[in-house]
Amino acid sequence: xxxxxxxxxxxxxxxxxxxxxxxxxxxxxxxxxxxxxxxxxxxxxxxxxxxxxxxxxxxxxxxxxxxxxxxxxxxxxxxxxxxxxxxxxxxxxxxxxxxxxxxxxxxxxxxxxxxxxxxxxxxxxxxxxxxxxxxxxxxxxxxxxxxxxxxxxxxxxxxxxxxxxxxxxxxxxxxxxxxxxxxxxxxxxxxxxxxxxxxxxxxxxxxxxxxxxxxxxxxxxxxxxxxxxxxxxxxxxxxxxxxxxxxxxxxxxxxxxxxxxxxxxxxxxxxxxxxxxxxxxxxxxxxxxxxxxxxxxxxxxxxxxxxxxxxx
Length: 312
Prior knowledge:
Blueprint: E1 2-3, E2 6-7, H1 24-32, E3 38-39, H2 47-51, E4 56-59, E5 66-72, H3 82-91, H4 94-101, E6 108-109, H5 135-144, E7 152-157, H6 161-164, H7 166-177, E8 181-186, H8 188-194, E9 208-214, H9 242-253, H10 257-273, E10 277-283, E11 287-290, E12 293-294, E13 308-309
């Protein structure tokens, strides 16, 4: 039998056609009219319309959901200073980001646990007082870190609906904490190309951007790519911390679940001291399907084996 991305992969339909429909309302109208069978990521603000149609069902194909993340460029001043990065751990709160982007509380969750709430390694260890928009504390850390007013180049993705509203929220919270922010809007492909550059932010580089991870990718210290702190070998942002790397190695070598949990908590505590990124809350994305299509597999990504269709 199928099991996530493993198990049996039985093709039950002759073919699967992908149709790119840029406008969400157009896509929903096509689904209601029976012109298409499935929308992988319907806009959250249109879900009430979909939910009220008797011929359509919502499909919870990824119950673990996703996690938003603010990524620092730790090689670019002032984010080379941990005090400046820690200031954002106090300035941010997850609710503002989730409400501005997802809106419907049944599809998001405020969660301080770095390794995703509802999973074995979830913990609030070290998170007291963080992600609560304590601007006084954030301002004190900026002063302690010697922030000189350097504008933070924040890249905003504008063509992916689940990301578009995140950067404006970050800009507002950062400014309340005392940062100057230069938010630069661009499509996601430009963000992807630019985040690989180590040029100075004022010369085509960057300080920060916001993205999202599938929760299945970030359930432990090893798989969470933004925790990789191996300097030039790390993912874009290039954090460099021997303590985090030692703990990640310890986790990989440990086989006792209880000891793994303790190591994961130690990683989370060290991350509060040396932030590599900031998690901005969990969110969930149901698919929308015609009711005559069945067999959807629960997995981190939508797959089309085991799916069957009756009638037209």
